[in-house]
Structure formats: C-alpha cells, structure tokens
Amino acid sequence: MTIATTSTAADLFVSSVARIQDQLARLRAAADNHFDADPSRINWGHVGDLGRIEAALKNACAVAFNEAE
C-alpha cells in the first residue's frame, strides 16, 4: 500500500542538501574561529569534543563518497 504525499523524493533530497549546506557553513564558521575556544583554557574535554566531530565527519564522508572503512 502506498501513501500519497505531495512531497517527492527530489523535493526531500533538495531540502536535505540545503540543510547540509547550512550545517557545513555553521561548522566552517565555528572551525574558522577555533570553536570559540580560549587557548589558555583548552583541556582534554575540548580534544574529545573535536574528536567526536572529526569521527562524525569521517563517517559522513564515507557515506557520501561510498568509501568502505
């Protein structure tokens, strides 16, 4: 059974691309500003946070570019 909707796969794809572009712009701006980190107060928590961001981006790239681990 198919549920009729007014959205098509293409519509949802385009809106997803727009959301990804927004997220990438926010991430780029934060990275350009070193994530607002005070260099004199950097701790291992900051390192862990960036490690999780890096791992998520690596996973996203693997999906986007169909790369196996």
Shape: elongated
What letter string, H or E per element, gives the SSE order?
HH
Largest sheet entry: none
What's the total helix number?
2
Supply the helix-strand structural class.
Answer: mainly alpha
Radius of gyration: 17 Å
Unreliable residue stretches: none
First-to-last CA distance: 37 Å
Give the mean pLDDT: 92
Number of strands: 0
DSSP helix fraction: 55-70%
Proportion of strand residues: under 5%
Describe the structure.
The protein has 69 residues and is mainly alpha-helical. It has 2 helices and no strands. The mean pLDDT is 92.
Quick recap:
The chain is built from two helices and no strands.
Keywords:
2 helices; 0% strand; mainly alpha; 69 residues
Write the layout of secondary structure elements.
Blueprint: H1 9-32, H2 44-64
